[in-house]
Specification:
mainly alpha
Length: 171
């Protein structure tokens, strides 16, 4: 769900901001553990929906409702649900995506300035052209991954936001 996308975005932020430490921080084992913890957390905080949902009968029409019973717990839980499924992801994705965008722009400016410095200095052009080509390939790959992650994040925001706005308005 949305928390997994937040975790993926956090992984990309670490890769962009700490490229030398990223492979030691973000290991497959840690990712599996983190996903299991997120699934457990999601299952735990979603469990009250089992007890509060059901069919609502209004003037000979049946409606499926997430919260049939109203009490203080269900009212509080509905707002906690909005926070964990809408507010935290909206703010988290917004902040982390802009961190990624600015870090990539800054790195692009740095690589461009390094490339122009190397060209002016005229130092061993065979090594610098091979290094520049490797940097370009790595940069292009990183840019593609980042664009994909940004598209998924913004699609999630755009597609889920109307549902949460509706929920807030009608609650």
């Amino acid at each position: 769900g949305v928390l997994i996308i937040l975790a993926m975005t956090l992984d990309k932020v670490i890769a962009v901001k700490l490229p030398l430490k990223a492979k030691t921080i973000c290991t497959p084992r840690r990712a599996k553990i983190f996903v299991c913890v997120l699934w457990f957390f999601t299952a735990t905080y979603s469990s009250p929906q089992i007890y509060g949902s059901g069919m609502l009968y209004v003037s000979h029409t049946s409606l499926c409702s997430a919260y049939v019973y109203t009490n203080a717990f269900i009212d509080a839980y509905s707002w906690i649900n909005i926070v964990f499924n809408a507010v935290v992801p909206l703010v988290g994705l917004f902040v982390m995506n802009f961190v990624i965008i600015f870090a990539i722009r800054k790195r692009g400016k740095y690589f461009h300035s390094q490339q122009s410095t190397m060209m002016k200095g005229g130092k061993s052009e065979t090594v610098s052209s091979a290094t520049t080509q490797d940097n370009r390939k790595e940069s292009a790959r990183e840019r593609q991954l980042t664009v994909m992650l940004l598209l998924v994040s913004f699609a999630l925001l755009i597609l889920t936001l109307p549902n949460w706005i509706r929920f807030v308005v009608y609650t």
